[in-house]
Write a structure and sequence with these properties.
single chain, three-stranded antiparallel sheet
């Protein structure tokens, strides 16, 4: 009898830097797909804070995702993402995103 291979997902916490400063932190299980989504939303004029700020600074180019850390499941990745966002909130305030709503986890 053949053993079924369990599909392993790797969740990556990533950042987006604009002008050499980290402006956004997120997490995904497919970095390539998420990069395409970010670029598509920016081009279509999405009104999220990140994209509005990028338009304010006249960002031109392709949004690149920079991997920070990998986790075996989405909960651990989400916790780390929230930690990094909160560290910025109580620190330099460079991020162009809102504090995550913890009840959503």
């Amino acid at each position: 009898m053949k053993k079924k291979l369990k599909k392993v997902f790797i969740y990556t916490v990533y950042s987006i830097s604009i002008g050499g400063i980290v402006r956004y932190i997120g997490q995904t299980n497919n970095l390539h797909r998420r990069q395409l989504e970010h670029n598509n939303m920016f081009k279509k004029g999405n009104d999220k804070l990140l994209y509005e700020k990028m338009r304010e600074v006249k960002f031109e180019g392709i949004i690149e995702l920079i991997p920070i850390y990998e986790f075996p499941n989405s909960l651990k990745a989400k916790r780390y993402e929230c930690l990094e966002i909160l560290k910025d909130h109580f620190g330099p305030n460079n991020l162009w995103q809102k504090i995550p709503i913890i009840k959503d986890m």
